[in-house]
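look at this stuff:

>
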Amino acid sequence: MNTKNEKRGLGRGLSALMADVNLAGPDQGSSGRRAEQMLPIDKLEPNPQQPRLDFKRDELESLADSIRQKGVIQPLIVRRKMGRDVYEIVAGERRWRAAQLAQLHEVPVVIRDLDDSEVLEIAIIENIQRSDLSAIEEALGFRQLMTRFGHTQEKLAEALSKSRSHVANLLRLLTLPTEVQDMVRDGSLSAGHARALIGSPKAHELAGQIVAKGLSVRETEKLVKVQATPKAADRKPSPASEKDADTRALEADLSANLKMHVQIDHGPDGQAGKLVIRYDSLEDLDILCQVLSQPPHRLARGDD
């Protein structure tokens, strides 16, 4: 059991750090909750573990223009480097770079005592909050917070002020082929189009058609549905009539409980087989994922 992650929960590990990343203006600093101070720009250095490596020059120039007029409104979060008279930037490297372009000599900072794990966590959170982030990049940030720090989808949604379905839908995009994810990254395919392709064995092929034809999300959903429906010549005779009464009864019970069509097909040996659940919308899929994600003991008790 990972007691460290359980202890942190939404405490210092996420929600408290979010409060730091979300410092939102001059009044925030004078509230007494944390002290701001000015530090020379040359006393600061970037975090070598910063997830964001690409800082676009035109965006930095735009921010520098704003800083020249209004100054650095949101203070940087920094920590002191052991044995050195310099500070490492935990959050706010973009502001620091723009402040240099604006030829400022010092910037407002909040000095925090943070370990390496917390520094990385804040950097990921700040990266997720970028307005120019693609859906895939945001999903990768969510996955990092979940796998490295033990946060659940529910806790992430709460702390980041996003819906649970938003977090779940983005994470499902990471199940798509790499080529399709790259199309979402470069903007040639929207997140809505990509969601419609989840689960399709021809996702990459269909993505190319969507871009080439300029299909809408609705048209994409129809295309995926048509591709998933076997042609009459390829359809095999339904084995429903060959199923025994117990199997048909079990199908009916599962279908009633899930509110989705359930089909059970036994293999030739009668020991193995497959269970097929058909969903009609992404909302249905989300519900199904929640049911299947329940711990085994909860499913056994029938708590849900």
